[in-house]
Design goal:
The chain is of the alpha+beta class. It contains 13 helices and 25 strands. Strands 3, 15, 16, 17, 20, 21, 22 and 25 form an 8-stranded mixed sheet that branches. Strands 5, 6, 7, 8, 9, 10 and 24 form a 7-stranded antiparallel sheet that branches. Strands 12-13-14-18-19-23 form a 6-stranded mixed sheet, sandwiched between helices. Helix 3 runs parallel beside helix 5 and helix 8 runs parallel beside helix 9. The longest helix is centred in the first third of the chain and has 17 residues.
Length: 474
C-alpha cells in the first residue's frame, strides 16, 4: 500500500512540475464552429442521405468530438448498407463519394498557378536509380505552362534540379498540381520525340476550362466529318465554353462526334443535359435523359423523383450515333451521357476501359457557418435512364477495350495514361481507335508508332485522385 501511495505521489510531483499547456495537452476540439458544422452534417444525413434509415439507427454512435473535416467520413464508414457511396482502393481502404469541404464564396474565377494538371499515376523513368516522373494530363490555355511549350503527355523528370523519388514524390506532386511553390524549374521529356527540355515557370493568373480541346477531324479516304470534343468535367460554370465548342462543331458540319470523357469524373447533371441536348438536337427536346430517385423518406427535397429532360439549346448536331472515349476515370455524369443516350435508343460505342461505375449522385449546398464557407454533397439519389436502367454500378464495359487485343489493332495496357497531346491522331491510342471505330478502317500500328508498347515510361505509384459525381446544385 505504501509503495502504491509513493508511486502516486511521485506521479503527482512530476505532473505538478510540468507546465499545463491547453493547446497541446488538451486540444479544444471540437470548437463551437465544429459543432455547428457537424450539426449541419447530421441534419442533411438524417433528412436526405440515400441510406438515411441506417443513419437513424447508428447516429447516436457517431463521434462528435472530431474536427468537422473528419466527421463525415468517420461516420459514414461506420455504415454497412451504403456500399454504393464510394469505391474500394487497391490497398483495401475505401474512398467515399459524399464530401464536405471548405470553398471560396465565388463562382468561376481566375486561378493563380502554373496551369498544369497531372495524371494521378507516378511513372518509373529510371528503374535502376529509383527515379520517378509525373505525366502531364492537361495544360490550360494562357497559362505559364502553355507559354513555356509544355504539352499533355510530357513527363516531368526533375524539379528544381532534383530527381523525383519515393521519399519526395508527394510534396513534389503538390508543388505542381497544388501550385504550392511560387516558381519551378522543370526538366521534362516528350514521349513522342524522346527529347528533353527545361521550363522555368512562375505563378500567374489564368482561367481554367473543362473544354480541353475541340476540332473537326478529316481522314483520308473517309468522306464524313468527325467532330472531336475533349470534356474534362461537367462544371456548370463553364457551360458557355461547352456550348460554344458544340456550336463550332455544328457550324463546321460535323456528321459524327467523338466525345472524349477519359478524364471526366462527372459533375453537374444540368451540364450533362445541355451536352446531350446539343448532340441530339431539338427534336429530342422534352425527352428524358435520366431519372434521379431519392429515398422515399427524404424530407428535404421537393421531388423524390426528378426527370431530367432534354432542352432546346439552339445547337443541333443531330447525331444518330455517339462514340465515347472512356476509362476508369470516367464516372457519374459521364456515365449518364452514355446510358442516357442508350435509353433513348441512340447507339453509343465506348472505346477505352471500364468506367468507374458511379450510378448515384449528390444534391449540393453551399453555406457559411461561422467563419467557414462549406460545400456539402452527401449521396442523395440513384440514377436511371429513360428505360429505368441504372445497373452500371460495376462500371460500363467498353465495346473496344484498349487494355486488351481488339479489332482496331492498337492497345495500351496502361490506358488512359497520357502519351501525347489532345487531337494527335497519330500517337493517341484512344483517339486513333475511336476514329477506326467511326470510319471502319483498321488503325495501322506503324501509323500510331504504338507509343504504349515502345515507351519506357511505366506506371508505378498511384496518388489518390479526387472523386467526382453527378451533382444537382441547390
Amino acid at each position: 500500500m505504501r509503495k502504491l501511495i509513493s508511486a502516486v505521489i511521485a506521479i503527482l510531483a512530476v505532473a505538478c512540475a510540468s507546465p499545463y499547456i491547453p493547446s497541446i495537452d488538451n486540444p479544444s476540439y471540437p470548437t463551437d464552429e465544429d459543432l455547428d458544422i457537424i450539426a449541419y452534417i447530421d441534419k442533411r444525413l438524417s433528412e436526405e442521405y440515400y441510406w438515411l434509415d441506417e443513419v437513424e439507427e447508428k447516429s447516436s454512435s457517431f463521434n462528435r468530438r472530431l474536427k468537422w473535416e473528419d466527421y463525415l467520413d468517420n461516420s459514414l464508414l461506420r455504415l454497412t448498407t451504403n456500399a454504393d457511396d464510394g469505391h474500394t482502393n487497391k490497398d483495401g481502404s475505401r474512398t467515399l463519394y459524399s464530401y464536405i469541404r471548405e470553398v471560396n464564396n465565388a463562382t468561376r474565377a481566375e486561378v493563380t498557378g502554373f496551369g498544369i494538371a497531372l495524371h494521378y499515376t507516378v511513372a518509373i523513368v529510371d528503374k535502376e536509380n529509383g527515379y520517378y516522373g509525373f505525366i502531364i494530363e492537361d495544360v490550360y490555355a494562357d497559362s505559364p505552362a502553355k507559354d513555356a511549350g509544355i504539352k499533355r503527355g510530357d513527363v516531368v523528370t526533375m524539379i528544381d534540379g532534383d530527381y523525383i523519388t519515393r521519399n519526395n514524390y508527394l510534396s513534389r506532386f503538390n508543388s505542381i498540381e497544388g501550385n504550392s511553390a511560387s516558381s519551378l524549374r522543370l526538366t521534362l521529356r516528350s514521349q513522342v520525340s524522346g527529347e528533353e527540355f527545361t521550363a522555368n515557370l512562375s505563378k500567374t493568373a489564368y482561367e481554367e476550362n473543362t473544354v480541353a480541346h475541340h476540332e473537326l477531324i478529316t481522314i483520308d479516304g473517309y468522306d464524313g466529318k468527325i467532330g472531336y470534343l475533349v470534356y474534362t468535367g461537367f462544371e456548370s460554370e463553364y457551360d458557355d465554353k461547352l456550348l460554344a465548342a458544340l456550336e463550332d462543331l455544328a457550324s463546321d458540319g460535323a456528321q459524327e462526334v467523338i466525345l472524349d470523357l477519359r478524364t471526366n469524373g462527372g459533375g453537374a447533371v444540368s451540364s450533362a443535359v445541355k451536352l446531350a441536348s446539343s448532340l441530339l438536337g431539338n427534336t429530342f427536346a422534352d425527352s428524358t435523359l435520366c431519372i434521379l430517385r431519392r429515398n422515399p423518406r427524404n424530407t428535404s427535397s421537393e421531388e423524390l423523383v426528378t426527370e431530367c429532360k432534354l432542352e432546346d439549346t439552339g445547337i443541333s448536331l443531330g447525331i444518330d450515333h455517339l462514340t465515347v472515349i472512356a476509362s476508369g476515370y470516367s464516372a457519374s455524369a459521364s456515365e449518364i451521357i452514355i446510358e442516357g443516350l442508350r435509353g433513348l435508343d441512340i447507339p453509343v460505342t465506348v472505346v477505352g476501359t471500364t468506367t468507374e461505375g458511379k450510378n448515384c449522385g449528390m444534391d449540393v449546398t453551399r453555406r457559411r457557418i461561422g467563419s467557414t464557407y462549406v460545400e456539402y454533397a452527401p449521396i442523395t439519389f440513384m440514377c436511371f435512364n429513360a428505360k429505368g436502367f441504372g445497373g452500371w454500378g460495376e462500371g460500363i464495359v467498353p465495346d473496344i477495350d484498349l487494355s486488351q487485343d481488339n479489332a482496331t489493332g492498337v492497345k495500351d495496357e496502361y490506358f488512359p495514361l497520357p502519351r501525347t497531346d489532345w487531337g494527335d491522331v497519330h500517337h493517341d491510342i484512344g483517339l486513333a481507335a475511336a476514329i477506326a471505330s467511326v470510319t471502319g478502317k483498321k488503325v495501322s500500328t506503324s501509323a500510331t508508332r504504338s507509343i504504349a508498347l515502345d515507351s519506357d515510361i511505366q506506371p508505378s505509384i498511384a496518388i489518390e485522385r479526387p472523386v467526382g459525381g453527378a451533382l444537382v446544385y441547390r
